[in-house]
Each structure stands twice: as structure tokens, then as C-alpha cells.
Amino acid sequence: MSTSLQTTPLDAWHRAAGAKMVPFAGFEMPIHYGSIVAEHNTCRGSGVLFDVSHMGRLRLDGDGAADLLDWLLTRRVTDLSVGQTRYSLICREDGGVLDDVLVSNLETPSGQQYFLLVVNASNRQKIWEWILPHLDRFPGVRLTDRTELTAMIAVQGPKVMAACGRFFKFDPNRLKYYRSVITEHLGKPTIISRTGYTGEDGFELIVRAEEAVRVWENMLLAGRDAGFTAAGLGARDTLRTEAGMPLYGHELSETITPVQAGLTFACNLASRDFVGRDTIEQLMTTGANQTRVGLLPDTKRVVRDGSAIFSAAQQPSDHQPSDQLPIGQVTSGCPSPTLGYPIAMGYVNSSHSKAERVLVDLRGEMVPARIVPLPFYRRPS
Amino acid sequence: MSRDEKNLLFAESHEWVDVSDTGGEKIATIGISAFAIEQLNDLVYMDLPAAGRVLSKGEEFGEVESVKAVSPLYSPISGEIIEVHRDLADNLDQLKDDPYDFGWILKVRINDDSELRAMMDHAAYKEQCSEAG
């Protein structure tokens, strides 16, 4: 293993539990502890714990922090009340997505208010450097990277709230979806957010690095009777794909706009300005050239990231790859453990986004696929 | 008939071979190792060739797909495929549980059994796996 990879505060726990560790965004992370499918199903049926300490955690304190973030984020920040969390995008002037983030307005028990920005691990440095030049205009703002001082644990599944809630000073059952609070677990400070990336109920915790193992083991113990287990990045990926959630580097990149990605709900244009606003407004009027769609390939095999999508109307002869231009590309694909068949997401030319059938190049073989609305899975309400 | 993995030969690419002598013909039964199956994790699909196809040593004859990746299957020896384990593709859980008996993939009539000399015995293969793991 390369020595340049970072480890999370839970690294020794993962290894002792038999995790298969893989490099991911500069960290060594568990991809699974034996079976991706079993971990996936445990999340849908009961509850699992993910170590997501690789995610970047940036803190903004001081006067002007809300205004600075309001200028950089596609979603309004200035009206975020204490305890609120929002999903937002950070875009370039041309609308290209630099990252998708969660921003929270938090208050410490001693009454100090600050903003927490949770960014993708692979974008942590980029977003840090994107914010830095703006500090000149907002001299009252202090930016700190909390990633390495803390650990982040996602506890996700239908039995999580009932099993784990009472172990916090502030019971997260009292938190609405997309609300956060700084509370205590066994006398130590914990940020708890009713958020997640699996399509299930649950919460995400941020604790001091030295508390990580204790908190992790306590959550496992709390869910022991319900069968909670640890889950790796493999299950996290199949869970979020079923839930139709974009992943940076797949559905999102600097060459994709929020309008193409179908994330206009995360763009507030009314009576405010922000980086990328003009392009996004224009695209919302004219429509984007490409649209993110769900795909159901008619095969048992898995259509994966990078596969070209062709129009079914330009049906190539005997299932050979078409010499026509593709109308799009697959960005994520996996077997869906919940549904029992393969699913995929991708981008197609908007003129084809309402087409029922397309063809996907599955390693040289043309496979029919249906375009379907996202998500593939919605938890029973 | 229960195969003892200690008596099998292994390729670097994780296929196993069991050679039997039937009426003067050498028949190789080919599968993939328990280690490879464990590394692949959660198999979802297996693509198999047709009987009658003639394989050369090292030729790709199919693929096995897991949740995360697709891996090609390579023939460890040259010869004609005389039988394909068609039930395997629909019973990948059983392949995981029983890679050396239920999990056989192909039977191949061997042309040149000197090719087997390049393969590893169980001890050498285990060593390769411990280095990889």
C-alpha cells in the first residue's frame, strides 16, 4: 500500500473486522466486510454503519460567513436558521458543477454560531482553494478544515432511529429530515444530522477523531438485536444508485450543469446572485442539451460507467456497435440487490430523454434498455 | 466425488484444473478458485462458451461479473471444450459455496499435457494468494 494514502480513525477497526480496504480519494477505505449485497440488504431491512470520515468537513466562522457561502452556493444560505441543513451545489461561472455539498447552520452549547460544509473527499482541496480567494472580500470569516480532527459516521436504515436515538442527549427522533444539532453522546460533543445517502432514514454523526471507535461500537451495540452491521463503500454505491442520487465524478463534474443533472431544486435564483447564476438561469429557460435519466438494461449483465447509449431508432444490424454517434453515456450502473435486476444512470441528449427504448453498448454487444424516471427505489412511507 | 483442492493445479489467473484419464484421453475439468471468488465478491453473472470450441492456453473463454467488476476467464490449457456446466450461471451462490465440485465450469480434451507443467500446485498457489492479499 502506498504510504501517501490517509487512513480514517476507524482504520484499525475495519481491518480487525476483515474489511477489504481499497484506495478512494486519497484514503484507504473499506469497500466491504465480506459481501456488498448482504450489507446493502441489511441497510434496507435494518441498519448499517458507514465510515464516511473521508468526506471533507470545512468550518466557516465569523461575520460574513453566510454571505460568503451565499455567493458560492447555488442555494440560499442567508436564510438558513440554526439547526437547518441544505443540499446545494457549488458551480463555476459557466455552470459546471465543482461539487455537491451539505451546508449546515450550527450553534455550539456555548452559543457560538458557525457553518459546516460537508464536501466530497475528492473535492476537498479544490473547494478549499475555491473559497480561499473570497476571504479577502469577507475578512471577518475564518475557514478551518476539520476533516482530520474528526470522524464522520453514517448510521442508515429503517430501524436506526428507534435503536439509536436514545443514546444522544438530544434524541435525533426529534430532528426533522435535513436538520442538525450539536449534542452529546456519552458526555462528548457530537454533531448529528438527519441526513444520508442511501434512501433510508437515519443520521450522520461527526465526532472527535479520538472518540470514533467508541461511538462506532456503541452504535453497533445499540443495533445489535436489530442485526446492525458495518457496511463499506460498495454498498454505499449500490444504495445511492437505487435511490437515484448523483455521485460526483460520475453524474456530476465540471462539465455537467445542475440543469442537465436535474438538480434545479438545489438552485435558488429568486432575488439573489451567486457564481454560475446567469448560466443556470439561461439553461433553465432554454433547456439543457443533455438530461440525466434512469436506465433499465434488458440483460442480467451490468451496464457500467462509460458505456455509450445509442438511439433505438438507429437500430444497428445484428447487434453490432452502431457507426452512428451515441446519444449519451452511462455514468453509473450496478446490479440492484433490492430489485433483483441491473440498474443504471446516464446522460442522454434531451431530445431522447422521453424515448422509451435505447440501446446500450455493453462491451461490444448492443443491449436494449428502457429509460425510466429516477429513483429506482423509494423507501416505504 | 469430492475434489480435494490440494490435488488441483492452479493458474496465475486463478483458474483450477483437475486432470483425469478416461480411456486414454486426458480430460481437464476447469473452474475458478475459492480465493478468486472471494475476491470478486457477490457474483451476479457468468458468460460461458459453447461446447466444441477449441481453446488455446491463455485464451479468454468467458467472463464472470460481480457487483463491482467484470473479470475475464482464461483457459489454463489448450484443447476442445467437450462439456460446459450450463447450470452454473443460474446458481452463482452455489459456486461460491462449493467452487471445486459444483463449481466446475468446463471439461476440455487436452492436446498437450506438457502445458500443465507451467501450472502451480496448491502450496505454490496459496503462496501467490497470500502475497496478493
Describe it:
The complex is a heterodimer of chains A (381) and B (133). The mean pLDDT of chain A is 95. Helices cover 18% and strands 31% of the residues of chain A. Chain A is an alpha+beta fold. In chain A, the strands form 4 sheets. Chain A has a 6-stranded mixed β-sheet with strand order 10-11-12-9-3-13. In chain A, strands 14-17-16-15-18-19 form a 6-stranded antiparallel beta barrel. Chain A has a 5-stranded antiparallel β-sheet with strand order 5-6-7-4-8, covered by helices on one side. In chain A, helix 2 (36-45) crosses helix 7 (233-242). Chain B is 18% helix and 36% strand. Chain B is built from 3 helices and 9 strands. In chain B, the strands form 2 sheets. Chain B has a 6-stranded antiparallel β-sheet with strand order 1-2-3-9-8-5. Chain B has a 3-stranded antiparallel β-sheet with strand order 4-6-7. In chain B, a hairpin with a 4-residue loop joins strand 1 (9-10) and strand 2. The longest helix of chain B is centred in the last third of the chain and has 11 residues, at 122-132. Chain B is globular. The A-B interface holds A 20, 31-32, 34-37, 234, 238, 300-302, 304, 334-335, 342, 363 and B 41-42, 44-45, 47, 65, 67-68, 70.
Task: Pick out its properties.
heterodimer, A: 381 residues, alpha+beta, six-stranded mixed beta sheet, six-stranded antiparallel beta barrel, 8 helices, globular, B: 133 residues, six-stranded antiparallel beta sheet, three-stranded antiparallel beta sheet, 3 helices
What's the arrangement of secondary structure elements?
The complex is a heterodimer of chains A (381) and B (133).
Chain A: H1 11-16, E1 20-24, E2 27-32, H2 36-45, E3 48-51, E4 56-61, H3 65-72, E5 85-91, E6 97-107, E7 113-119, H4 124-131, E8 142-145, E9 150-156, H5 160-164, E10 180-185, E11 188-193, E12 202-208, H6 212-222, E13 229-230, H7 233-242, H8 277-286, E14 290-297, E15 308-311, E16 328-335, E17 342-349, E18 357-362, E19 365-372
Parallel strand pairs in A: 3-13
Antiparallel strand pairs in A: 1-2, 3-9, 4-7, 4-8, 5-6, 6-7, 9-12, 10-11, 11-12, 14-17, 14-19, 15-16, 15-18, 16-17, 18-19
Helix pairs in contact in A: 2-7
Chain B: E1 9-10, E2 15-22, E3 25-32, H1 34-40, E4 43-47, E5 54-55, E6 60-66, E7 70-74, E8 79-84, H2 92-97, E9 106-110, H3 122-132
Antiparallel strand pairs in B: 1-2, 2-3, 3-9, 4-6, 5-8, 6-7, 8-9
